[in-house]
Amino acid sequence: MPPRVLTITGPTGSGKSELVRILGELASDDFDPVLVTKFTTRPPRSNDGPEVECVEEIPRDCDIAYEQYGVRYGLKSQTLWDLVAAGKSPVVIINDVRAVEDIKNQFAGMARATYIFREAPSYERLLSLSHERGVGSSEPGAEYGKRHLKAIMIHRIYIENVQLFDWVILNVGTTIAQMRAQVEQLVRGEAPVIKEIS
Amino acid sequence: MRGVRLYIVVGTPGSGKDELVRAVRILGETHAGVVPKHTSRARQADDGDEMICSDDEGYDLASCQITYANFEERYGIRTDQVWDRLRHGVSQVLVVSNAEAIRELLAEFDSFVTLLYVHSVVTEADFTRQAEERGYTEEYSRERIEKYWDAFDVYVRNIRAFDHVLIHAADNEDLYDQIFRLFRAYERGLAGAG
Asked: Domain A5-188 class?
């Protein structure tokens, strides 16, 4: 069975957006992914999509809320329930382990927690990503060091909660086709049988 | 029998599987034992006690119920001994990356199996360094690089078969941390229910 609720955890530059794009391409009659809007108190970024709504305060009815590096995030579990009831598969990008646990507890067997791994980006890559995304100043500095540290800390979330994650997508500098092959198998729910080495 | 598992560890060459198994032997014997493998090749300097080589006392490839070939050598696993330990409530860790052997193990141990993939970030420079340290020939080293991508391909093509992925990105301790957390999660019934 395809997943009904999908959480995605991964550091900056790990390929979360690419993963979301692939999920969209794999939409079918029984898998209709919808990226869920998350509220955040951080300032807007030039590349923010509809999945992020920047607010001064997290709305009171956000029952899944957390804070990271002084920024608050929140989402409404009712939104997820409404989407599930409408036959959709809500997809939530979330880098907080308690929030992932909350979603898994609420949706029990329906939820799949996914971790996307890519080698922690170098300082230079973060700098380049920050330029592409219009984040921060144009000069390297403490801000990029902080983002690098954050990427490493998100990887620690995985190490310390390995049992929590149902799926791991390895985005390890090979081809998009290999990443797509992983996502496709997970979404289509193929039987877990070890196949021949090619 | 709750939490008693056969952890089958699959991974790329140089992923840290051997170090992981040694850590289990040294630090984790209250959680799990290590299934020894019999091999037709002679003992190498970096072999641990988890390998029973053709020049070792106790070598008995003929008694192994599952055998497979790797780099032109034969390897074998005594499944009767694995069953014996599982019956006594002892979880086991077994490193094997041969697809046919994994299939046989899955068929035999079925619901006892937790299949783990160890992924490591290894560059060609790492392989070269390892080859120098371990005295590998250029040809053997090249084969290891090919095996690395073959093993990754096994993961990509069989992702649903794996229960967990251990990521070896930096320190060995982080890798050990992951398997010990899994041991505890299974022992407490916090993993494996779904």
From this structure: alpha beta
